[in-house]
Each structure stands twice: as C-alpha cells, then as structure tokens.
Write a structure and sequence with these properties.
Elements: E1 20-24, H1 28-39, E2 43-47, H2 53-64, H3 75-79, E3 82-84, H4 88-92, E4 97-100, H5 106-119, E5 125-128, H6 135-138, E6 148-153, E7 162-167, H7 173-185, E8 189-192, H8 201-218, H9 224-232, H10 235-241, H11 244-251, H12 256-272, H13 282-296, H14 300-325
Helix pairs in contact: 1-2, 11-12
Length: 328
C-alpha cells in the first residue's frame, strides 16, 4: 500500500488485522507498549534516538515481561519479533499501528507526525501517548490528521488496563472505533472521551489527588510514605474494585447516590474550599524528593526493584479482580 499522504477530506485506507506496530520512543511508556505488543504476537519496530536503544529495549522487555497481564513471558522469545530502527521513515513503513511516546514537546511531535504521515501506510492508525498536548496541535503540520488521536496509557503501560482515547477536531470517528478495538485486542480497557480536553481524565483525577497529597506533606501533617499508606489502605483499595461514583452510590445504601449526595453533598462542597493549593517550587520539590529517597531509595537498581514490586502487586490485584468476576 502507498504511504503517500491523503488529501484533506479523503477516507483512510481500509485495514486488515494488526500485525506490525511501530513504537517511537524508548522511555518507560514506550518500553511498556513494546513489551505488550510483542506479547500479543505483533512484529514491533522500535524507533529511538538513544545511543543505547538496543540495550534499553532489552532491559525494558526483560523487566516488564515478568508481569504481563496474561502471565510471565520469556523475554528472549519476545525479542525475536523486535527490530530497533533509528530511521523514523523506515520504522513506520508498512506498520499497521504507530504508537508515539516522545516527551511532551509540541514542536517535536508536530514535526514527527508530519513525517510519519508521509511514510506510514494509509491504513495505519497514528496514536500518541501524549498526556497534555492537543491532537489538533500535534497534527497541525499534517496534510490530513484524520488518523491521528491520543491513545494515552496509564503507567505501567504494559499492565494497567486503561487507555484514554482523545480525538482531535478532524479525527475520523470510525478510526476511534478501530483504535478502541485494537487496544481491546491487547486486553486493555479503552475509554474514548467525547470531545477534546486539556489533559486526560485519569491524569486530571490523579493531579487533583496529588495536589492535596503534596499539601498534606508540605504542611507537615504526614510524610511521603505515610501518605502513600493512607491511599493504599483506603482509597486505592476501594477504587481498585469500584470507581468513586459507584462507591458513593453504595455509600447511600438502598437510596443510592441521590441519598448520599443529599446527606453529605453540601458539606463536601464546602470542604472543597479548604483543599490545599501548594506550589511545587524549589523548596517543596527538595522536601518531597528527600522524603521519597529516604523512604524508597533512588537510582537504577532501586527503580528496577520498585518497578518489579509495583508490577507484581498490580498484576496480583488484576488476577484477584478477574477471579472475583469469574470464579470459574
């Protein structure tokens, strides 16, 4: 199939099954996608400007293969389907899906997607893991951004089910459905937002909770590790099983969410005024970072240990939830 750019208003080419994926970027998100794609039998081409890209991919796949949702996989077997390609055009040529994972640099992403559009086949889905940049902004230099959308994972991307799909103003709605089907085939839980927004829903929720967490630590109410214990021992546990609306719906007893909000809603709204609005300035960052390093360590070995522990715990939660939903 031709990789020539389509004219504005043209329909993207019809697509068959996804067999080849191009992953652009070898940060933790890109490495997580790479491992998951390989585990689902895809041929994967990784594009990276890193001098140590080959080793970074090998290390990443080796780390993440142990905690895949379907169970551990042999990293050496996975790597037989992987190619590291430093040239973007060659990496995306013939790909059915392109998953981009560069840092949040709008100029870099605009230039990249203009190149990818010219080199990738006309049927290829063009997906960005961006968390804060708009699709229309990233696709501003494309001839036809109908195929471009955000497919934002939640870290670690090889394990956590959620993918937030955010279209742009010119994204083809049929391709949003195709993207959701693709992510679903990987065992993901895709959720498509109904219109573009600043940030993604999960990140906005995370930011709201983290803002109050930072406030409580900076005020000396709790330390970093104590705050983590509060969340994992209460809200994290609850929200791992049910979401906030369902939780409050149950909190209202037989009267449901209406009864709950009638009873505590006005008081809750008044308390929102007292939530913290901390600045993440130099002293704040220093305090938070020092406490995190003291509690959890830092450096490559600490990261690998903590990531493996995190993934093993999250995989165990997912297994338990699946068992609760289907005891057979």
């Amino acid at each position: 199939m031709s990789g020539a750019a389509k004219g504005p208003g043209s329909r993207p080419e019809a697509a068959g099954p996804v067999r080849t994926a191009a992953v652009i970027g070898t940060g933790v998100i890109g490495l997580g996608w790479t491992t998951l794609f390989l585990a689902h039998g895809l041929d994967v081409r990784v594009n990276s400007r890193r001098d140590d890209a080959e080793q970074a991919v090998r290390d990443g796949v080796g780390l993440f293969a142990a905690t895949l949702p379907a169970g551990p996989a042999d990293p050496e077997e996975l790597l037989t389907r992987l190619t590291v390609e430093p040239d973007v055009e060659r990496a995306v040529a013939g790909a059915d899906v392109v998953q981009e994972n560069l840092r949040e640099d709008l100029a870099a992403k605009r230039e990249l997607f203009a190149r990818v559009e010219r080199a990738a086949p006309g049927h290829a889905l063009l997906l960005s893991s961006a968390s804060s940049l708009g699709v229309d902004d990233m696709g501003a230099d494309m001839a036809d951004p109908a195929r471009l959308m955000v497919g934002h994972p939640f870290n670690p991307s090889h394990l956590v089910p959620l993918v937030e799909i955010v279209p742009g103003g010119r994204t083809d709605p049929d391709l949003v459905t195709r993207a959701a089907d693709f992510y679903r085939s990987l065992g993901k839980t895709p959720v498509a937002v109904r219109r573009p927004l600043r940030g993604t829903p999960a990140n906005r929720l995370q930011s709201a909770l983290f803002r109050e967490a930072v406030h409580l630590v900076l005020e000396g109410i709790l330390t970093v590790d104590e705050l983590d214990a509060v969340v994992t021992g209460s809200l994290g546990l609850r929200w791992g099983a049910i979401g906030p609306f369902r939780a409050f719906h149950l909190g209202g007893g037989p009267g449901g969410l209406r009864r709950m909000l009638e009873a505590v809603g006005p008081k809750m709204a008044r308390e929102w005024q007292h939530l913290g609005t901390p600045d993440l300035d130099g002293p704040a960052v220093e305090l938070l970072a020092e406490q995190a390093q003291e509690a959890y360590g830092s450096g490559k070995h600490a990261y690998e240990r903590l990531a493996a522990e995190r993934d093993a715990r999250q995989a165990a939660v997912l297994r338990a939830l699946r068992a609760a939903e289907d005891p057979a």
